[in-house]
Amino acid sequence: MTVETSETRAPAEHADPAPPAAPGSALRRIAVPVGTLAAVVTAFGYVGAVDPNEPGHYPGCPFLQLTGAFCPGCGGLRSAHAVAHGDLAGAVGDNALAVAGYALFAVVWVVWTLRALRGRAFAPALGRIHLWAAGAVVLAFTVVRNLPFGGFLTP
Length: 155
Hints:
Structural class: mainly alpha
Distance between the termini: 80 Å
Strand content: under 5%
Helix content: 55-70%
Mean pLDDT: 87
């Protein structure tokens, strides 16, 4: 029978550190964030090259065609086109909610990439309250942009 004493156990603070990352592992860890960014840049590049302000390039909004009311996405392509051309004021005028979404994506992407580079998982803890709040913001945006005093939010 062996009895462990503090002299025979290695102290926790002197435990061996994690092995160094394998060469190229940082590239593997950021492959998905970089691929996601490449897809977004490609989409913005396409929308920047093919002007949504000219009729016939993109289909119209079915919600707008059926109801005559603007959906939360109306003006989103025009907003992306304006962002691709560096016109932030025009983008906000086309769809302010979309511009907020672009900014949120940028922040989330940077955090995701930094965590991936450090070897940490990225799993934003969104609870029901966050999802309900996001839904409430989208609903409020949709309602206000269709009211007479919400003309500043229409595309």
